[in-house]
Amino acid sequence: MMRYWTTRRRDVLTGYLFIAPQLIGVVLFVLIPVGLAIWYSLNKWNVFTGKQVFVGADHYAALAADPQLPSVLLATVVFSGGVVVLNITLGLLIAVLLNRRFRGATFFRTLFFSPVVVSVVAWTLVWGFLLQDNGGINGLLRAIGLAAPNWLQHGDTAMLSVVVSQVVRSVGVNMVLFLAALQGVPSELYEAARIDGARSRSMFTRITLPLISPTVLLTAIITVVGALQSFAQIAVLTGGGPGLSTTVLVYYVFQQAFEFNDIGYGSTLALMLLSFVMVLTLLQWQLRRKWVFHEQ
């Protein structure tokens, strides 16, 4: 028995024991649900009787014939694009401003990060009250003599509202990541650049951005995945309306599966969403070699 448990085998067993919790979690909460979604997408399931009928690729063919799907995909692109661009841009801008030493820097860092720890539903409910026709935002606009639109009842302003509420709540995460990256840039590089007569813009583009590019990649992946999975903001603020103007793909999955009780088609849409997330993540990962510093 002692001969069997060599040092190498004990090390291997220790390694497997360490990864076992994560591996079990992946199997239970990723692989099995994806496998069930694939199975449900191939069947028509009557949730009331519990009867399943195998329909093969019918649900996949229904994707091409769904008249609402183009509008849903357009809303998904607009929402995700707005959230990603604003979140990364503002997160980096705020991090650069707060990376300096001045009185109150800690207060402002806490201020910008505090929405992250607030419940998504509570945060969205507050924004819902603020964005009502007689809410706080319109009251402020009327007080200074500006037009006060009904933010959540018109397509363009409804989409703008959900994008802004999402960005304001989540920009603190990217700010913290960028702050950590900025504080890791050696100050000697900036001093050498100043001696050579470099301007602030040149130092930012030629020193700061290349050195924090791995963090930019990380925040881009996190923000894209988070934007594609945003559900509570849409459900609480607009319910996908008016019309389909704010019905993003993840909310459309919920509608089909749990409001219209079409589990098969909802699972098919969920697999489409999963494929979008995987493709975008892999695309960003492959493009890292062209713009991420230290990548070969």
Keywords:
single chain; 296 residues; mainly alpha; two-stranded antiparallel ribbon; 12 helices; 3% strand
- Strands of the largest sheet, in order across it? 1-2
Distance from N terminus to C terminus (CA atoms, Å) equals 47 Å
Structural class: mainly alpha
- How many helices? The count is 12
Strand-residue proportion: under 5%
Q: Please, what is the oligomeric state?
A: single chain
Order of helices and strands: HEEHHHHHHHHHHH
Unreliable spans are none
Radius of gyration: 24 Å
Major sheet attributes: 2 strands, antiparallel
The helix fraction, in percent, is over 70%
Shape: globular
Mean pLDDT over the residues: 90
Number of strands: 2
Task: Give a written overview of the molecule.
The protein has 296 residues and is mainly α. Helix content is 72%, strand content 3%. It has a two-stranded antiparallel sheet with strand order 1-2. The longest helix is centred in the N-terminal third of the chain and has 35 residues. It is globular, with a radius of gyration of 24 Å. It holds the Pfam family BPD_transp_1. Belongs to the binding-protein-dependent transport system permease family. Keywords: Cell membrane, Membrane, Sugar transport, Transmembrane, Transmembrane helix, Transport. It is found in: Cell membrane.
